[in-house]
Amino acid sequence: SSYDAIILGAGAAGMFCAATAGQRGRRVLLLDHSPEPGRKILISGGGRCNFTNIHTAPDRFLSQNPHFAKSALSRYGPRDFLALVEAHGIAWHEKTLGQLFCDRSAKQIVQLLRDECAKGSVDLMCGQPVADVAHADGRFRVRFGDAAFSAPALVIATGGPSIPKLGATGFAYDLARRFGLKVVQPRPALVPLTLGGPEALFATLSGVSAEVVASCGKTAFREAALFTHRGLSGPAILQISSYWERGREVGINFLPDLTEGWLREAKRRNPRASLRSALSAHLPDRLAETLAERLGLPGDLGNLADKALTGAEQRLWRWAFHPDGSEGFAKAEVTAGGVSTAGLSSKTMEAKRVPGLYVVGEAVDVTGWLGGYNFQWAWASGWAAAQSI
Ligand code: FDA
């Protein structure tokens, strides 16, 4: 029942940390309350796991301390994990924007982690609640079901509360607080946004998508946006949701490739065309129809004043949406916020005031963009802690 390290949470960060520490000769116990390890990995990337992003850089992560992730990300980068993927003979491809996916299945990444854990002689136990965690005389004692274990190092790798039906909990925050660590208010991120009031009418566009630039303040993402029956989704919206706060507006540029004067030019070329048909040349029909209706400029372009067309262009470049909320932790791909980095070493992930206590992965207040960044943080932070255990 005595180990060098006990790791709570057999997700991406916990498994990788356990494997790495085990292969460094540490006796590691990895515990999870779910019946099997790596459940989020299995459903990630549409079942193909977007396991890293080759453009990983610290500015693609949100945190109260934007510098915190630098050290771990620079010491264990996307090429390191890719080398491991290749060593396991897993075929992969780059989909878009540096996102690397398995050709076949996310199951291969879970198997990779299981094999690496086995190589490090990690004891993996699943399917029981972690009943109690105590700390005395430099040792952490953990009750898991009916059994009790102890070690001089404890790694909190239980992630954040997004997607509770997969066993996600806020356990990391409760435990961290008990050890005196602060928690930055957790919030759903990479999550669809909901529209209410007059904007709820956009629900009629459910299923329509278009490439847009979505922005919030100074942050902008050019990717697809998707209208849903509840509001807005798609990669551009998921990305911007991590930066959005209640009360702020989200700007959508529906026509990022068109330059000033394009509508006046359309009027000159075809004065008998309607605004709707001019928009249909660049946008899906249903979206063109709805936007034209809302712009409220009926009739032929030829009968519309240039000033009105310029106004319409401006609006289409920055259509202001006012989300009334998000679809919450039930639908959020990650949790932003979490255990404050202020109390952790950026080199080792160890709590500055509690020697032997580590926090890794999504539980920490470091949140990546969509596109493999969150797994890269899980690998890098897990690796950093494993070097110190
Ligand atoms: P993770 O959530 O993986 O693991 C935490 C573990 O702790 C779980 O096994 C859980 O059962 C366990 N646990 C929780 N509470 C516990 C308790 N009280 N006691 C014991 N155990 C407990 N990222 C990316 O980079 N590329 C992608 O393709 C995707 N795709 C994706 C799809 C979907 C649908 C979701 C929900 C998320 C993604 N992500 C992603 C995000 C990615 O899955 C996430 O960032 C990592 O899994 C975080 O790894 P962690 O190990 O920190 O937590």
Number of helices: 12
**Silhouette:** elongated
Q: In percent, how helical is the residue content? A: 25-40%
The largest sheet has its strands arranged as 18-17-14-15-16-13-19
Q: How can the largest sheet be summarized?
A: 7 strands, antiparallel
How many DSSP-defined strands? 22
- First-residue to last-residue Cα separation: 18 Å
- Each distinct ligand: dihydroflavine-adenine dinucleotide
List unreliable stretches of 5+ residues.
none
Overall radius of gyration: 24 Å
Mean pLDDT: 97
Classify the secondary structure makeup into a structural class.
Answer: alpha+beta
Proportion in β-strands:
15-25%
Account of the 3D structure:
The chain has 389 residues and is α+β, with helices and mostly antiparallel strands. It has twelve helices and 22 strands. Helix 1 (12-23) runs parallel beside helix 5 and helix 1 runs parallel beside helix 12 (373-388). The protein is elongated. It starts with a strand and ends with a helix. The model has no long low-confidence stretch (mean pLDDT 97). Bound molecules: dihydroflavine-adenine dinucleotide. Dihydroflavine-adenine dinucleotide is lined by residues 8-14, 32-34, 39-40, 43-45, 49-50, 130, 157-159, 162-163, 167-169, 171, 333-334, 361-363, 372-375, 378. Dihydroflavine-adenine dinucleotide (FDA) is lined by residues 8-14, 32-34, 39-40, 43-45, 49-50, 130, 157-159, 162-163, 167-169, 171, 333-334, 361-363, 372-375, 378.
